[in-house]
Amino acid sequence: MPDRPRLAAASRTVVGKKVAHLRHEGRLPAVVYGHGLTSESVSVDAHEFDLLHRHVGASTLVDLTVDGGKARPVLVYSIQVNPISRRPIHIDLFAVRMTEELTVEVPLVGQGAAPAVELGGTLVHPTSSVKVRALPDKLPESLHYELSKLVDYDTTCTVADLVVPEGVTVQADEHEVIARVLAPRVEVEEAPAEAEAAEGEAAAEGEGGQAAASSENGEAEGGGSSES
């Protein structure tokens, strides 16, 4: 049997609101279920699960024992947390069959450095995870890709650039962008001096036009008086 993380559980008969007493005793309520299996209510040591959760992901197989029985592989399928403390309050454990393929979501990890960042750009990751399908013991914890190809602002890393282990199928469009470098934003501002000069010229033209009009009116009025 592969050397996998282990988690010990105990059968649980307490359900509903009464599980609050379990949490006060340092126990975390959980449910074990799987295809063709009857769901089983159990509890695990909260501290032990915290330590485990720091090192396992959604695709990591864990050997679960209930009441000291035979170990069976499970996945930590979901974790319900307290909205205030963010501490786990309930977990779902999915019992897997080693001969049946599973679909899980795994994170993407970029390796190396993107040369375009040194030009002043910003590295962004439009897609940070993808779904993969494989047998339970073939599920990767993450998929990697190289950032060194990002030499300018037009080049992108796509799903096709992922290093995918044998026996693993990525369920995503190979053209989907997973990383790129954005060019720095350049803001064009009008120079204050030029703006003020333009406003001054416009004002001067307006005043000149008014003065010329006043002069013409004065000459017209003067001419009329001498004739009379």
Plain-language structure description:
This protein has 228 residues and is of the alpha+beta class. It starts with 5 loop residues before the first strand and ends with a helix. The protein has helices at 19-24, 46-53, 192-227; strands at 6-11, 27-33, 40-45, 62-66, 72-81, 88-95, 102-111, 122-124, 129-134, 143-146, 156-158, 169-170, 177-182. The strands form three sheets. The chain has a six-stranded mixed β-barrel with strand order 1-3-2-6-5-4. It has a four-stranded mixed sheet with strand order 10-7-9-12, with no helix packed on it. A three-stranded antiparallel sheet has the order 8-13-11, with no helix packed on it. The protein folds into two domains: 6-95, Ribosomal Protein L25, Chain P, CATH 2.40.240; 102-182, RNA Polymerase Alpha Subunit, Chain A, domain 2, CATH 2.170.120.20.
Structure, briefly:
With 228 residues, the chain is an alpha+beta fold. Helices cover 22% and strands 33% of the residues. It folds into 2 domains: 6-95, Ribosomal Protein L25, Chain P (Beta Barrel), CATH 2.40.240; 102-182, RNA Polymerase Alpha Subunit, Chain A, domain 2 (Beta Complex), CATH 2.170.120.
